[in-house]
């Protein structure tokens, strides 16, 4: 239940990520600078699993993770699986895009429940794979956009993708960079379960991450949803210290 989009310009990238979760799940810890396998990263931390869904490294490379709800899952094996939250941290701990892609494609996938994971670089490159519990497949990134939902997956994905493409067409080539947050806060559909800014009785968009990486530096902005509201609080902005 998440949506991610990204754009490039002038050796820079900007990534928007909506994290959708059960209303009963603990809110994540706000982003902070951490060390993972010797690398310095900025990432929010899920207190339940101890990992994250998105991570930024000093090179401006962003790694992310979505649940793969369209996959068939063998529930009998769930107890043997590791937390998927370690995947973005492990991928972002590599020093360059090629190494991140290699790490992504050589994951010991059988240790994890189905997922979609990707990596985006300021160099203008992106790469994503999907694991369905049996097969690892490359994802088509013709449009720099991915979304998943546990509710009416095909219909929700189709609507969100069509809405994204509609806004891209209406706004021009630079729209995704300058106004991508508008899409991630979009409430155009009368059924709030379909919107990128999702809301259902059992789940909602908990937070929105906005990551910008340019030759001058990186910035990780984090917006938290105010409970029982469609409004968000700007929880702060993080960059790497010297």
Describe this structure in words.
- The chain has 242 residues and is α+β, with helices and mostly antiparallel strands.
- The chain has a single domain, classed as Penicillin V Acylase, Chain A.
- The protein has 4 helices and 13 strands.
- The protein has helices at residues 86-92, 97-105, 153-171, 175-184, and strands at 2-8, 13-22, 29-36, 39-45, 54-57, 62-67, 115-120, 126-131, 136-138, 145-148, 203-214, 217-225, 232-238.
- The strands form 2 sheets. The protein has a 7-stranded antiparallel β-sheet with strand order 3-4-5-6-7-8-9, covered by helices on one side. A 6-stranded antiparallel β-sheet has the order 10-1-2-11-12-13, with helices on one face.
- A hairpin with a 5-residue loop joins strand 7 and strand 8.
- The longest helix is centred in the last third of the chain and has 19 residues, at 153-171.
- The model has no long low-confidence stretch (mean pLDDT 93).
Average per-residue pLDDT, rounded, comes to 93
For the biggest β-sheet, the strand order reads 3-4-5-6-7-8-9
Beta-strand percentage? 35-45%
CATH homologous superfamily caption: Penicillin V Acylase, Chain A
Spans where pLDDT lies below 50 across 5 or more residues:
none
Largest sheet: 7 strands, antiparallel
Span of the ends, CA to CA: 35 Å
> Using DSSP, what is the number of strands?
13
CATH architectural group: 4-Layer Sandwich
How many DSSP helices? 4
- Work out the helicity level: 10-25%
The CATH top-level class label: Alpha Beta
What's the shape? globular
- The radius of gyration is 17 Å
Pairing-aware structural class of the strands and helices? alpha+beta
The helix-strand sequence is: EEEEEEHHEEEEHHEEE
């Amino acid at each position: 239940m998440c949506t991610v989009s990204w754009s490039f310009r002038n050796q820079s990238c900007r990534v928007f990520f909506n994290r959708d979760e059960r209303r009963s799940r603990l809110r994540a810890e706000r982003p902070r600078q951490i060390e993972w396998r010797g690398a310095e990263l900025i990432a929010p931390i899920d207190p339940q699993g101890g990992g994250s869904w998105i991570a930024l490294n000093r090179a401006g490379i962003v790694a992310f993770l979505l649940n793969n709800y369209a996959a068939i899952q063998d529930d009998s094996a769930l107890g043997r699986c590791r937390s998927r939250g370690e995947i973005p941290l492990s991928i972002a701990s590599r020093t360059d895009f090629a190494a991140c892609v290699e790490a992504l494609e050589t994951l010991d996938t059988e240790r994890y429940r189905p997922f979609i994971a990707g990596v985006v670089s300021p160099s203008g490159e992106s790469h994503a794979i999907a694991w369905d519990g049996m097969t690892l497949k490359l994802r088509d990134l013709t449009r720099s956009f991915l979304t998943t939902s546990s509710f009416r997956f095909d219909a929700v994905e189709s609507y969100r993708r069509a809405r994204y493409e509609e806004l891209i067409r209406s706004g021009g080539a630079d729209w995704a960079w300058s106004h991508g947050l508008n899409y991630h806060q979009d409430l155009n559909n009368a059924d709030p379960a379909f919107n990128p800014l999702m809301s259902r009785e059992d789940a909602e968009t908990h937070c929105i991450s906005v990551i910008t990486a340019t030759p001058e530096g990186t910035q990780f902005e984090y917006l938290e949803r105010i409970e029982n509201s469609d409004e968000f609080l700007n929880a702060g902005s993080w960059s790497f210290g010297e």
